[in-house]
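Postdoc handover notes: sequence design on the structure in folder B. Input tokens:
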């Protein structure tokens, strides 16, 4: 009976990749969740950006030009925030020197028609771009 047992071969070692598969699945799940979170965050950021642009445009439209100093500061502030594309930046750069004469002084005169026309053009282009 001993001789029959001598024919038994030792156990064969089978490579075990289950740990690699497990960690690979975890890494793939984390990558997928991260990608989904990035897409959602990007969409929320774009929506927030659009809403802010609409608020800035509403603030520009509601400027009271009777107080020319305060109006010049508000137009400068909100104009800078809403000027994001090339055309709006060009118009803002043209409007800015016209607004400068109403700022930094104690007493200022009423806003002239040229400044109001440039401002209205800027608001109109901003309204079309949003």
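Designed sequence:
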């Amino acid at each position: 009976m001993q001789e029959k047992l001598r024919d038994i071969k030792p156990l064969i070692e089978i490579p075990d990749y289950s740990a690699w598969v497990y960690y690979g699945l975890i890494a793939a799940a984390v990558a997928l969740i991260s990608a989904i979170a990035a897409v959602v965050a990007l969409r929320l950021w774009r929506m927030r950006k659009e809403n802010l642009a609409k608020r800035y445009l509403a603030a520009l439209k509601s400027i009271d030009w009777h107080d020319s100093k305060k109006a010049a500061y508000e137009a400068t502030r909100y104009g800078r925030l809403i000027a994001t594309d090339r055309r709006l930046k060009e118009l803002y750069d043209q409007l800015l020197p016209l607004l400068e004469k109403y700022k930094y002084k104690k007493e200022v005169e009423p806003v002239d028609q040229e400044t109001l026309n440039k401002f209205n053009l800027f608001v109109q282009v901003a309204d079309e771009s949003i």
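Context for whoever picks this up: The helical segments are 2-5, 18-61, 68-82, 86-100, 113-129. Don't rerun without checking with the PI first.
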